[in-house]
Amino acid sequence: MTVTIYTQSSCSSSRKAIKWLKENEIQYNEKRITSQPLSLAEFKNILRMTEDGTDEIIATNSNDFKNLDIDIDQLSIQDLFNLIQQHPRMLRSPILLDEKRIQVGYNEMDIRRFIPRKVRAYELSAMQKLASQV
Fold it and tell me: What is the top-level taxon of the source organism (predicted)?
């Protein structure tokens, strides 16, 4: 499975996530949303994968969002998409997703969900063996 990672320039969390993906040999496609705007299909897919909808992906503390002074809950999907096209820094970053999972932001523990299950099971087994030897 290939992970798609949506990043922004000058984002330390995006750099950490890419470094982690490389270190764990996980295939990924990077899309820098500040220079390659999201398509409507990509935006809808990201929203579909979230548990909390726009609350999960909109950076409400970003200057772009604060300067707009709008209630995004009152916007249609198309209007919100158009707004994000104009102000991509409104989105939190990075956004990582594959066919089954999404992660918004970088969290060292949560990102492990992108390691294949067999590898995680093997690592757990190895740690349990080490623990039982102590």
Answer: Bacteria
Give the catalytic positions in this structure: 11
- Contacts for 72-77 with beta carbons within 8 Å, 24 or more apart? 77/43, 77/44, 77/47
Q: What is the percent of the chain with per-residue pLDDT over 90, rounded to a whole number? A: 66
Per the rule left: phi > 0, alpha: psi between -120 and 50, beta: everything else, 44 is alpha
Query: In the chain, which residue ranges form alpha helices assigned H by DSSP?
Result: 12-23, 40-49, 54-57, 63-68, 77-86, 117-133
Pick the CATH number of 3-132 from 3.40.47.40, 3.60.10.10, 3.40.30.10, 3.40.50.280: 3.40.30.10
Per-residue confidence (pLDDT) for residue 45, from 0 to 100 = 95
The residues of the chain scoring below 50 in pLDDT are none
